[in-house]
TrEMBL record:
Classification via SUPFAM superfamilies: NAD(P)-binding Rossmann-fold domains (SSF51735)
Protein's UniProt name: SDR family oxidoreductase
UniProt xrefs under InterPro entries: NAD(P)-bd_dom_sf (IPR036291), NmrA-type_oxidoreductase (IPR052718)
TM region positions: none
Length: 274
């Protein structure tokens, strides 16, 4: 049986859908399980049960400080080894993401896999096109961003889900492989042009100030995380692409520009009728 963690999250649920669409038997693991989904909370190591799982798709459980994320992943990998899981597919971070503030948790998890006894495949996921679109903010009738004219090799989340499902459905040929799953590069200017609006750049000082002063609800680790994405994109560290995604999917990647533009468009404030 294939088990996909983070089953109620965006990526985990899409991987499950992709697996079921191709006829694979798969179940989900979640902190809040529903019918047919196993309870799986990495913050509760004593409660982790992976018996009967042949292939585990470990969707990274980020959104916390590195020590917490690494402890989560270590706990689930220990449970996988104890319970006889046959193969782990881990959704990591693109190689170019070594510049990003949250890379350490991914690389530490990869190290656990490489030094452990379980067969593994590491999917180094690029930043989502949806994320890129969401990080463009509306100001007046245009978009603002800290990205300058830097490009991001963005990838539609649905493609990453299809890629993970492809590997999980038949993991043996992918044993010991590290795949860098990024798409064609997009820029903020091109997203704005697609929407027919201007794009105005802001500096990194101003961006961080807005994160700290004007973005309620951010957790302490998030401003440095987002600022690292901004400088990484702005200065061209995340623009390079690889053939791994299209090779794995056997088709071209979905157009990340269209996905980013749709995400940005959906966030456009509506103008009140006068
Ligand atoms: N490549 C990118 O651009 C990008 C962007 C953002 C995040 N990420 C990383 O990719 C992961 C998946 O992205 P996503 O879009 O699916 O994020 P998401 O919609 O926020 O889903 C993340 C899921 O992680 C699971 N999770 C969190 N804490 C957990 C814990 N203690 N134990 C077990 N599961 C836990 C939860 O699943 P349940 O609700 O089912 O418990 C949660 O819904 C994120 O968690 C993050 O590490 C990547």
């Amino acid at each position: 049986m294939i088990l996909v963690t983070g089953a109620n999250g965006n990526l985990g649920s899409a991987i499950l859908t992709a697996l079921r669409t191709r006829g694979s038997t798969a179940t989900g693991g979640s902190r809040t399980p529903g019918e047919g989904t196993r309870r799986l909370d990495f913050d509760d190591p004593a409660g982790l049960d992976l018996t009967g799982v042949s292939t585990l798709v470990l969707v990274s459980a980020g959104y916390a400080e590195d020590d917490r994320v690494i402890a989560r992943h270590a706990a689930v990998l220990a449970a996988a080894a104890r319970d006889g899981v046959g193969h782990v597919v881990y959704t990591s971070l693109t190689t170019a993401g070594d510049h990003l503030a949250f890379a350490a948790a991914h690389r530490a998890t990869e190290r656990l896999l490489r030094t452990g006894a379980l067969p593994w495949t590491i999917l180094r996921n690029g930043l989502y096109a949806e994320l890129f679109g969401a990080l463009l903010s509306w100001s007046g009738d245009g978009l603002e961003s800290p990205f300058g004219d830097g490009a991001l090799a963005a990838v539609a989340r649905a493609d990453l889900a299809d890629a993970a499902a492809t590997v999980a459905a038949d993991p043996v040929p992918h044993r010991g492989r590290t795949l860098d799953l990024v798409g064609p590069p997009v820029t903020a200017d091109r997203v704005a042009a697609r929407l027919g609006v201007p794009h105005r750049g802001i500096g990194l000082d101003e961006y961080r100030r807005r994160l700290l002063d004007e973005t309620p609800g951010l957790l302490p680790f998030q401003p440095p995380m987002l600022a690292s994405i901004a400088t990484g994109v702005r200065h061209g560290f995340l623009a390079g692409t690889t053939p791994d995604l299209a090779d794995l999917l056997g088709r071209p990647a979905r157009d990340p520009l269209a996905v980013a533009a749709a995400t940005a468009a959906a966030a456009r404030p509506t103008v009140a009728a006068s």
